[in-house]
């Protein structure tokens, strides 16, 4: 079982295509949509967690590439600006996925990009504008 | 075995002082006992790095040619208004000041992206800031307007002057209502789904000298990355609150008024903050050295998180209405563990005060002392303590009855209704 958190960038001509449906039906993948920003006749972005057999997942990703979808890893879309972060931890109790966490007993604040679901809750919660969402 | 500050400074001069931070000293006292540790340790360093709203800075910009009298006029720095009610080119900028065109909470919750605190951070970072002034013009100060870039190094004086910093303990904030609230304690989720606190606990300066035995007017400190001084007790200094057996207040108590030369400070330790829905404020780094004069001072300085308690307060009803109801008492050890129990419910916690940075400040101050860069000062006046009889007063409102009375007549003591 492989899991990938990805951003699927839909070019305008694919926005009305049932891409997610095909990922599920043709490749037997579980597609969990975390966020979507798709408007008709424009480019769209879909943030998904895809899981399934490793071979099927790879085949699914090949299918997406052939279609002309640009696929990015989710971790690249969320960024902690180290120089702005003061490691107070204000974001930690807000973060639903544990991507922002406190190491004890040093109380250093860490950001694990692979756990982030880009819900953006940390953005207004951070007084120092340390969290950046590029999605 | 009692020591004096002069003796400790002699040791610092000769590189022989033993300095530990307020976290390290806990373990040291546990291993060696108070008596032995008190003979060995000369200084315990403390630290805190947290938002402190009653912070600001004053500046003397230097005189323009021809001269302008900013006093009584209007001045903005990067659009943020500064207070001008002084002599010709002296200004005060507060951390919570906002540009006049900031929408504030009109579009709720407001973002408060830039305010006085950010101007201070930008200046300290060496950035150019735009100074715009309108003045009324006088015979000796004829100029009426100014629009110029200005930098910290161009100014005659730039002094951080914070009238209330380093609160000795603070509330733990929760939200009992059914909607998200935005406070200076951060975003509070409904139904007590999170709790925020704001103290470095065992590292925090006044937690380690609860009766202010060594901290007072004139104490040299780490302030914003440079050397500053304690001017006296801060506003709302309230030493007479209930305390634990270890002397540590169980709620907000003492405060410090501090000042220091902004030109030697760093934007790592003075940081503009934007609290969504609340406003701007300045995160200030402060470290206070505690001279271990005797065993009692060391006993206080070796306090640990498990023995420091704070009150849980509802910020949806109780706090805004000035209703001093506590939902319970929790220790900093519990707060730092990531969750507390309030009224039988497990609540996730988050700190607004950076413990990691507080530790870094205590470490830096320790290094300064060990390297003979920083000496202790004798305080000239002690801060008011438990025997001061200080009472913390709410505002006693005396509503104006006849609002129709023109201000001019009011000032003359004339009531137009007669």
Ordered list of secondary-structure elements with their pairings:
The complex is a heterodimer of chains A (135) and B (418).
Chain A: E1 2-10, H1 19-27, E2 30-38, E3 44-52, H2 54-67, E4 70-73, E5 78-80, E6 100-103, E7 108-111, H3 122-125, E8 131-133
Antiparallel strand pairs in A: 1-3, 1-4, 2-3, 5-8, 6-7
Helix pairs in contact in A: 1-2
Chain B: H1 5-13, E1 19-21, H2 24-40, E2 43-45, E3 48-51, E4 56-60, E5 74-77, E6 80-82, E7 90-94, H3 116-124, E8 129-134, E9 145-150, E10 157-165, E11 172-174, E12 181-183, E13 186-188, E14 194-197, E15 216-217, E16 220-223, E17 226-233, E18 256-261, E19 270-275, E20 279-287, E21 289-291, H4 295-301, E22 309-314, E23 329-331, H5 332-337, E24 339-342, E25 345-351, H6 355-370, E26 381-382, H7 407-411
Parallel strand pairs in B: 1-2, 11-22, 14-25
Antiparallel strand pairs in B: 2-21, 3-20, 4-7, 4-10, 5-6, 5-8, 8-9, 10-18, 12-13, 15-26, 16-17, 16-20, 17-18, 19-20, 22-23, 24-25
Overview of this structure, please?
The complex is a heterodimer of chains A (135) and B (418). With 135 residues, chain A is α+β, with helices and mostly antiparallel strands. Chain A has two domains: 2-76, ACT domain (Alpha-Beta Plaits, 2-Layer Sandwich); 79-133, Alpha-Beta Plaits, CATH 3.30.70.20. In chain A, 20% of the residues lie in helices and 33% in strands. Chain A has helices at residues 19-27, 54-67, 122-125, and strands spanning 2-10, 30-38, 44-52, 70-73, 78-80, 100-103, 108-111, 131-133. A four-stranded antiparallel β-sheet of chain A has the order 2-3-1-4. A two-stranded antiparallel ribbon of chain A has the order 5-8. Chain A has a two-stranded antiparallel sheet with strand order 6-7. The longest helix of chain A has 14 residues, at 54-67. By secondary structure, chain B is of the alpha+beta class. Chain B has a domain at 48-52 and 160-219 and 228-284 and 304-353. In chain B, 17% of the residues lie in helices and 29% in strands. Chain B contains seven helices and 26 strands. In chain B, the strands form seven sheets. In chain B, strands 3, 4, 7, 10, 16, 17, 18, 19 and 20 form a nine-stranded antiparallel β-sheet that branches. In chain B, a hairpin with a 2-residue loop joins strand 16 and strand 17. The longest helix of chain B is centred in the N-terminal third of the chain and has 17 residues, at 24-40. The radius of gyration of chain B is 23 Å and the shape is globular. The mean pLDDT of chain B is 96. At the A-B interface, loops of A face strand 3, strand 14, strand 19, strand 25 and helix 6 of B.
